[in-house]
Amino acid sequence: MQTMPNAQPTPQQAPPIVRCWCCQTAVLDRLGVRGQLPAPGLRETCLECAQRIAAWVEAENSIPGPPTKFSAELVEKLLVAKRNGNHSNVAARWAGIDRTTLRRWMLDGEHQDEFPFRQLNLAVDSTDAGVEIDLVALVRSAARHDPELALKFLRQRHPDRWGVSRTEVTGAEGTPLFSKVVVLPPEDDAGDPNGGAG
Predict the structure, then answer these.
(1) How far apart are CA 85 and CA 131, in angstroms?
(2) Cβ(28)–Cβ(17) under 8 Å?
(3) Which of 26, 73, 169, 196 is least crowded, fewest Cβ atoms below 10 Å from its Cβ?
């Protein structure tokens, strides 16, 4: 009778550190990661930033005109949608604002250093980058087992070297006479000053 080898316990991964979307300090979460306390009812906004945003909203709403819809709750909802790969227009609708409002806030954050729009802009850009990195890793992993997927990935990433060229010849009235598709081979890197890196 054979005995089973001693099973080695798998090391548990450390819980991810939740960071405040606004100031990037670690936020204490349910798993006990050390950091600042989150604002009540929020998961990714530290108490200090939530209070700062609330004060900013109050000051904005004291100015005559329509009240601002900006809030820490809205930003967290927006970032959840973005983290799941949604387009900004869909994320804005789900968070309860018009896409033009989000676009204006993002432009304000891109061109000005004004609180809280700069922080929103950085948080959305960082979230989008994280989603893309995860998806590229997923595609690359799948491409190891699927050469066609690998070729599609190369065609999208480097269309000048791996792209498809389509030529169509039309007649006098614009009707197509014939169509020709040419798959471009990879170029020789000898003439490339970057050595093919891109």
Answers:
(1) 6
(2) no
(3) 169
